[in-house]
């Protein structure tokens, strides 16, 4: 614990140093990356020493002579800290060259400062051991991430995305603080340990409030509206940090407070499970209909948050029904997917950033053929695409298999629990299939085929530091897929400090992890053997190659290739009851028609509902009060005097 706390000043220095050296751009970047990496390496070392002797470590100090700032490190906090310490230096290394084209050096220095501040805030959130400490850390995380989203604040799109994110994150914070108020009113204490003693009715209210607050941060449907706007607006390495690491703090809050409430009732489990299934399915369906690469990846974050919550919901259902194996595998699968998603989603966002930097484009239908000009970016992006689809032998398959195992364990339950477990299996299968379909679209259109862009500023592959970061993440995805045993044990060890899991079925988890490793290696070996057989068969035989039939065109052109809309149209149309598709097509009314455009846009029903039910009535109400804003200073002073008088009379 002492080493972990000592890393915080180093991380703070990594944010302050760029502010002091902003005019020396290279020095600014080098100091930020070096100090941030040093602090995170110290954090990894502290986690390593913690796992040698996994006993809860605590630290507290007084603040303002009134409150106590209390910190604690247990096994659950440690597993959520690992993605922070592992990914932050990698993303920072990528950002070393990503912002090279920035013309505002002071703005870049501010971005480095808030990047370090967000890292510190996420560490403090996982260490917080009372309500005051948690509230301060949560607000610091919200405000620093808002500042990062607003990096290009002169753009109107960035402003609207930033303010939308601020609205959702502050509304979520109000829900969390309201839950804290209920707990304090019932117990008279700010300590987390007292939460289990509150009455059942208040527990239900606290659960609903924390679900709304943490669900908003995690991007849980229908509280996800900010996420597809904030990620395209933020710099790509910031999107990687927010999607890969920060939104997992919402998952941490849900899991932590569920166990603090100590109320394993079926209603909590079923609520989380249903919301997870809805988020997973709608997230991937909306991703299928999107053509902006970063917006598409943002919807896949919603999908994977749904997968994590399916695992946690199955774990809660196992606790409520007394099935400890189901509970352990559900939570362990969800926790491992937190790490896996952090790895492959960060990899995909970094790949999208490299493509954006090289071409200046994000729209799928303006890209193409980048595997030839950006081979490292293309191959690492392909690795991330296979991983996020949950296919062997990569890491996404391992965590999803554990969740599947928990769901199949739930089939032995009776009544409605059997139906919920079956629904979870069907949902996971649909999510996996649709995700694979979506990323065949992305890879096929962006990386393969003929280039569609004619005005992009393509400059070849990404810089060395950017490629190194992507290669590292891709290798870790492969490593977990082929050697999952230590990572599966790590996920189960994360449950050790929680009261229901004092005796975790280690033999069962170890056996399954070993079988998964063998299956992954056999799958990889089979691929290698098949490729070798093909090479042997064609080694001494003449093989002729010719171009694909061009439908009458004399040479290959992007006009005869699939677009993102045409590729995913049938899948999106199939889910039309769940999504709203708006099309614009004037039709062909002449024998020799001119140029005709077909435009298809998949609209988010949650965003439409927010606009119709809240924003539009609010704007109409405010419009009726516009007469108050007339520009006369004297009347404004009168408003102030009148308000003060009313407050004095009331108070």
From TrEMBL:
The chain crosses the membrane at residues 76-96, 108-128, 163-184, 204-227, 239-261, 267-289, 301-322, 381-406, 418-448, 469-492, 512-537, 633-650. Its main location: membrane. The keyword Disulfide bond does not apply. One of its GO terms (molecular function) is oxidoreductase activity. It is found in: Cell membrane; Membrane. It is a multi-pass membrane protein. InterPro entries: ComplexI-like_HydComp, NADH_UbQ_OxRdtase, ND/Mrp_TM. Residues 128-410 form the NADH:quinone oxidoreductase/Mrp antiporter transmembrane domain. Keywords: Cell membrane, Membrane, Oxidoreductase, Transmembrane, Transmembrane helix. One of its GO terms (cellular component) is plasma membrane. It holds the Pfam family Proton_antipo_M. GO terms for biological process: ATP synthesis coupled electron transport. This is NADH/Ubiquinone/plastoquinone (Complex I).
